Amino acid sequence: MADDIRVRKVTGRWVVRSDGAVLAETSAALELEEGSHAPVIFFPRQDVAMAFLDAEGTETRSLGKATRFALVDASATTRDVAWSVDAPPGPAARLAGHIAFDAEKVTVERL
User: Which Pfam families did the record assign (predicted)?
Assistant: First the structure.
């Protein structure tokens, strides 16, 4: 795990959209900054429309064992749209119960 992990609450209202559907919306988002990687916004699970997401497996990431999610709608399944870490260690522990989305596959924005 990187020594330079920072997690902070970000201001404003954040939303995730895919083809017009709102997948998540919150004013309690957290931002992960890890080394030289681009910052990632995490949404509390209770603010995510989990009916659109199907768990599709796990992988090991720098923050621990992560669950990957696919976006499933009536016409298609898009793999690896989101991920979460159930028990992130140390400074990332605040991310437990949160989900991050791949900003290349869905729109993640601050309103």
Answer: NTP_transf_9 (PF04248)
